[in-house]
Amino acid sequence: MANLKEIKLKIGSVKNTQKTTKAMKLVSSAKLTRTRQLSEQSRSYAKKINEVLSEIASRVSKVQDGGNTNKAFLPVENPKTVDLVFVTADKGLCGGFNMATIKTVSKLAAEYEAQGVTVRYRVAGRKGVDFFSFQKVDLLQKVTDLSSAPEYDRAADFISEVVEDFQNGNTDKVVLIYNGFLNMLTQEIRVRELLPISLENVEAKESDTSMLEIEPDDDEEVLEELTNKYIDFNMYYSLIDSLAAEHSARMQAMEAASKNAKERVDSLTVEYNKARQAAITTELIEIISGVESLK
After folding, report:
1. Residue partners of 241: CB distance under 8 A and separation at least 6
2. Burial of 57 (0-12, 13-18, 19+ CB in 10 A)
3. pLDDT (tens digit, 9 = 90+) per residue, 266-279?
4. In the CATH scheme, what is the code of domain 2-14+254-290?
5. pLDDT tens-digit profile of 63-116?
6. Cα 102-110-116 angle, rounded to 5 deg
C-alpha cells in the first residue's frame, strides 16, 4: 500500500505542475498579444525612418564632392575591432530561445577571431549575462531587466555607449543579434550590421517621388539627427521583437510541458490501477488461503 501512496503523490504533483504550465501559457499568450501589436506598430515606424534616412544620405552623397563623409555611413573592409550587441531574455522556461541567440553570437565571434579581429561583447538580458559570465568571457557592457520591459530611453542610453565608441574609433563595426518574432510558432535569429549603416537599397529608390522638403544647408544636420534616431530605434525595436519571440517560445514550451504532464499523469494512473489491482488480488489470495487452511 505504501507503493500506492507514492504513486498517488506523484500523480498529484504532476497535476499541480500541469496547472502551473497551463497558467504560464495563458499569461504568455496575453503578453504576446500586447507585445505583438507594439512590434507591428514599431516595425512601420522603423521602415519609414529607414526610407527617410536613405534619401537624406543619398542627397548628401550627391551634394558633397567626396560623397557622404559621415562616419556612420563609411564602410570598413577590414575591421580590427567588432562589437557584438545581442539580446537575450531575462527569464527561462522558453525552450531553446536563449541558446539559439547565444550559439549565433559564439559562432560569429569565433569567425571574427579566426580572422584576427578583436571581439567585444555587449549584452541586454540576464540569460546572456549569466552564460558568458560563467564561461569567463569579458562583457564590455551588460544590462538586465531591459529585455523583459523594453523602454525607449533605456534602450537609447544602452546603445549610446556603443555609438560613442564607434565615433571615437574604439570599434570599427557594430553587429546586432537577437531572436526575433516570425509567427506564433516560429522565431528567427536576426543578425544586422548596425554600424556602419549600409544603404544598398538607395539606388533603387532614387526614381521615387520625394515627399521631403528640406533646405540643402540642413541636409547634414538632419542626417545626423536621423542617424541617431535610426540607431536608437533599431535597438528599441530589437528588444520589442525579441520580447514577442520570447513569449511565443514560452507559449510553445509550456504547451509541450502541459502535454508531457498529461501523458505522465495517464502513465502514472495506469501504474496506480495495476498496483491497486495487484494489491486486491494479493489480499483475495491471502483470504482464500486462510479459509482453506481452516478446513
Report:
1. 39, 42, 43, 178, 180, 181, 190
2. buried
3. 999 998 998 888 88
4. 1.10.287
5. 444 555 677 888 888 899 999 999 999 999 898 999 999 999 999 999 999 999
6. 145
